[in-house]
Design a protein that fits this description.
This protein is mainly beta and 363 residues long. The chain is built from two helices and 25 strands.
């Protein structure tokens, strides 16, 4: 569908770019490879999906970029535990990864989620899975899937989300484009936000898949690009929208829908390039933005890629900025200690990090 999806927007910025001061947030782990989604297991352990740094190849065309801009294959993706004393331990390594020449991940682990002790790991792809299946090594077929990962690091495939897009493309006049980015795990099912397909895909416990919801274009006919899905305290589902390039400032929303995918409505508007959504036990919503957004005049495009911030929407109140100065922040989770944990520098192959931000209760 020719979108500039989340895993592609770091191309123009060098991985070593300087990050602004993030104030009260403290770095608890650094040296990560393109860290993306972040989540707590039921035992309180914190995990991060590392997109990896690709490898020597084969190399394939980067879908939205000019001819000759390649992403190269390697098996450097990982699922990583962030240790309580600081630092990290990789519990599953050798996962397929695609990266640009500057090391920015364009395929590989993109999210981790829990219901029980085992993790659900989302594997991003971006593009038509026919290329994945015909050009890259056999292990690359894990890209575009969701995986079940045990605490010991063993894994199995749960569903090929990219193949679902190839079979049931809800926009038949558009090219096949799948980029599974975030998955919500609930009893008996998993719901994956496919940023490339602009859909939510439900996978049942028996492995059967179905199109759960097809998101509609936003203002100006731009694609919605769902990047995150979370269950709210009201039992409804909340979906964050990146929206299509150039991420016009204030044009993104968090959508709300029933647990069966019906009655889609806007829960929070006036946002920009939403990349993750989370809730705390008090019902406050945390919204992570990954760009400051394009403002008039246009052209030229100047969407402020990488300028990230964390917002909080307390019940009955408007969103307020909680933390600014982030650089390509990609994931947020609220810990059992009532602190926010954020993956930052998510387009760097060597300097990705996890931040901890202490939280005070909503007024």
């Amino acid at each position: 569908m020719n979108i500039r999806s989340l895993m592609l927007i770091g191309l123009s910025l060098a991985p070593g770019a300087v990050m602004a001061d993030v104030g009260p947030a403290k770095t608890i782990a650094s040296g990560l490879m393109n860290p993306r989604g972040i989540a707590f297991a039921p035992n309180g352990a914190l995990y991060v999906a590392e997109g990896g740094m690709g490898g020597p190849g084969p190399c394939i065309q980067s879908p939205p970029q000019p001819p000759g801009v390649l992403r190269c294959y390697g098996e450097t993706g990982a699922l990583t535990e962030i240790l309580p004393e600081g630092g990290y331990k990789r519990i599953l390594t050798g996962l397929p990864s695609l990266a640009l020449a500057n090391g920015t991940s364009e395929g590989g682990p993109s999210d981790v989620a829990f219901l029980g002790a085992a993790a659900t790991l989302t594997m991003g792809w971006a593009g038509d899975p026919a290329v994945r299946d015909s050009v890259l090594p056999p292990k690359a077929r894990l890209l575009g899937n969701i995986l079940h990962v045990t605490p010991s690091g063993q894994y199995k495939v749960l569903a090929d989300i990219a193949a679902h897009e190839a079979q049931f493309n809800p926009y038949p006049n558009s090219a096949v484009d799948s980029n599974p980015y975030n998955t919500l795990v609930q009893p008996g099912r998993r719901i994956t936000a496919d940023a490339g397909a602009n859909t939510l895909i439900e996978t049942l416990a028996n492995g059967k898949r179905r199109t759960f919801a097809v998101l509609q274009p936003v203002s100006g006919g731009r694609q919605p690009v769902p990047t995150s899905i979370a269950e709210g305290p009201d039992g409804k589902l909340y979906v964050g929208q990146l929206t299509g390039f150039p991420f016009w400032r204030g044009s993104a929303s968090v959508l709300r829908m029933n647990s069966d995918g019906s009655n889609v409505e806007t829960a929070v508007s006036g946002l920009t390039a939403v990349v993750d959504v989370a809730f705390d036990t008090g019902g406050a919503m945390y919204i992570l933005e990954i760009a400051s957004g394009q403002v008039a005049p246009f052209p030229p495009p100047a969407p402020g890629l990488g300028t990230s911030r964390l917002l909080r929407k307390c019940p009955g109140a408007d969103p307020v900025e909680l933390l600014a100065g982030l650089f390509f922040a990609a994931g947020v989770a609220i810990g059992p200690d009532n602190a926010a944990y954020i993956t930052n520098r998510s387009t760097s192959p060597t300097t990705g990090e996890v931040l901890r931000l202490p939280l005070t209760p909503c007024p």
